[in-house]
Design brief:
single chain; alpha+beta; 6 helices; globular
Length: 253
């Protein structure tokens, strides 16, 4: 089975988890919990939103923050409103260690009105979420601006019909790596190299000042039309995957 086929099949394993959330167990070492959120549906808990009722950008931001704190609070055993988040160098968000001494790392990403949250106890984590069917304007020009020389050369050899998929594959992986490393995007994406071929398992091939072999990368499809990436500096990387849903309807007796 090709690696790409494995990625596609991963979509089937995002288990449904309905609100309300009970206290969640912190993932053991080497395990990442991934949560996929459809913010439109969560903001309209009676079902799929009607046409014209999609969240506006400001509502998306506030809804995303609400559910991020809700999830983290479930792991910490406290209400979401009591979760304190601070930012370290380059703006990476982390739990405020003066309030939350637990070894819990998280990362979040959004694409449109969808959101991905990763949680682990295994060290700094980075996740990214992209619309896999969204066309990217001038991917080769973008690669010359942001990618390493090796990535540019490999992307230049990709046929036009595969160019968009290869670019999204690489971009998602690179976003996840810079988030995990806490580097920020500016002037950093070109300092490491990831695999370009979307039909092969993702990999970090080289990284300035670090051992690329110590990193693990993964790509998953949490929903049709969406590509998720996760990066962690850990020998093993295993996922437990969930789709967060509104409260289940109460069946009448």
């Amino acid at each position: 089975m090709k690696a790409r086929e494995k990625v596609i099949k991963a979509e089937e394993h995002f288990r449904r988890q309905h609100l309300p959330l009970n206290e969640l167990q912190v993932p053991p070492t080497g395990v990442v919990h991934l949560w996929f959120l459809d913010l439109d549906r969560l903001a309209n808990p009676l079902g799929e939103p009607e046409p014209g009722t999609l969240l506006r950008p400001r509502q998306v931001r506030s809804t995303r923050r609400f559910y991020l704190r809700l999830l983290l609070g479930a792991y910490l055993g406290i209400p979401g409103k009591d979760v304190k988040i601070s930012r370290i160098i380059k703006g990476k968000p982390v739990l405020d260690s003066t309030v939350h001494p637990q070894a819990l790392e998280f990362s979040s990403a959004s694409s449109g009105n969808r959101c991905l949250v990763g949680v682990t106890s295994s060290g700094p984590l980075g996740v990214d979420l992209e619309q896999s069917d969204r066309e990217t304007l001038q991917p080769r020009a973008l690669s010359r601006r942001y990618f390493s020389r090796e990535e540019q050369q490999e992307l230049d050899g990709v046929p036009e019909q595969n160019l968009h998929r290869a670019f999204i594959h690489a971009w998602a992986c690179k976003e996840a790596v810079v988030k995990a490393a806490g580097l920020g995007i500016a002037n950093q994406l070109c300092r490491f190299t990831v695999s370009i071929d979307p039909d092969q398992a993702p990999a970090l091939l080289a990284m300035e000042g670090d051992d690329a072999g110590e990193w693990q990368l993964a790509l998953l499809n949490p929903a049709p039309g969406y590509l998720a990436a996760a990066a962690l500096r850990q020998a093993e990387l295993r996922f437990e995957k969930f789709s967060l849903l509104p409260p289940a309807p109460i069946e009448s007796g």
